Amino acid sequence: MTIKNLNEFLESSKQKDLSPETFELESPYMLEVKLDGRVWAKAGSMVAYRGGVKFVRQGLMEQGLTSLLKKAISGEGTQLMKMEGQGRVYIADAGKKITLLRLNGESIFVNGNDVLAFQDGIQSDIKMMRKVAGMMSGGLFNVKLSGAGVVAITSHYEPLTLAVTPDQPVFTDPNATVAWSGGLSPDIVTDISLGTLFGRGSGESIQLKFAGTGWVVVQPYEEVYFQHTA
What we know:
The chain is of the alpha+beta class. It has helices at 6-13, 60-74, 130-135, 192-197, and strands spanning 23-27, 30-42, 46-57, 80-91, 97-111, 115-119, 122-128, 141-155, 160-164, 170-172, 177-181, 187-190, 206-210, 214-218. The N and C termini lie far apart (51 Å).
């Protein structure tokens, strides 16, 4: 065990400025946003700020009727807030690892629990997996992010990216699935034998099947256990 004196602790943990980018990781678990205008972030993710910053929950007109209906179906859904003004904002989500991705016109899908922040040039749209909504409590929702700008996503521990090819589909646990490429549209499959093997209360195991060409990101952690409603 290493014991630091007070000055050593203050020096090693102080805020750093190593990049001119709007998003800068202060640590793998803490994101600094150099705010000059507007950035979208997960509601409740702010841990500290300085400067003239205004926090506003996503408005009804900005969400649109379709997104409101999707949120009503999925429960809370993805609650976003606008951070507007000039200053520094520090955000985090339950100590999860943060990954920064720069989109240059591409689209990606991210599990609704794993969207931390994105720049104003990124468009977002909530997507519901209807098949799951009929099978599971609350269903499964994700967020399509597209456009030009930087996106911050989170994962429990180190994420793993798996390639999806036409001859090699990938099957994932929905609770461990973080993100996937915009050209993929996962199907829902069940495996009763797997459910029995792992002792799931429902006796069934729900999986996502990714087929085609692209990639899928998983984490070594199951975020939320689904509950069977049938």
